[in-house]
Design a protein that fits this description.
Layout lengths: L1 E5 L2 E5 L3 H16 L3 E4 H5 L9 E7 L8 E6 L5 H16 L1
Antiparallel strand pairs: 1-2, 3-5, 4-5
């Protein structure tokens, strides 16, 4: 985190790999039509993941990255009919 710019215009900014990944995941919400997407690395840091409705969406290769990452959708707080459909699909995915 720091200040960028020159003497006429300065802005606070954050530059880091984590910020870039978060930005790229946020841009994927439109493609996956989800409100919240998170990486497997983020999921590992959630103390009680069972408190959330989560579904694995697969692996993606983000721009500028060599390795693909697993992504998950958190669909708590979505439209109730969508939540019910996604919960039902989790049951069928687990049976495969």
């Amino acid at each position: 985190m720091g200040i960028t710019g020159d003497h006429e215009r300065m802005d606070a900014t954050t530059i880091a790999d984590t910020v870039n990944i978060a930005s790229r995941l946020e841009s994927l919400t439109k493609y996956y039509k989800g409100n919240i997407l998170l990486s497997a690395a983020t999921l590992k840091n959630i103390a009680n993941p069972e408190a959330f409705y989560l579904r694995h969406l697969g692996s993606v290769q983000l721009k500028g990255k060599i390795e693909s990452i697993s992504i998950y959708e958190c669909f708590n707080g979505g439209d109730e009919s969508d939540v019910q459909k996604k919960l039902a699909s989790l049951f069928f995915l687990a049976k495969r």
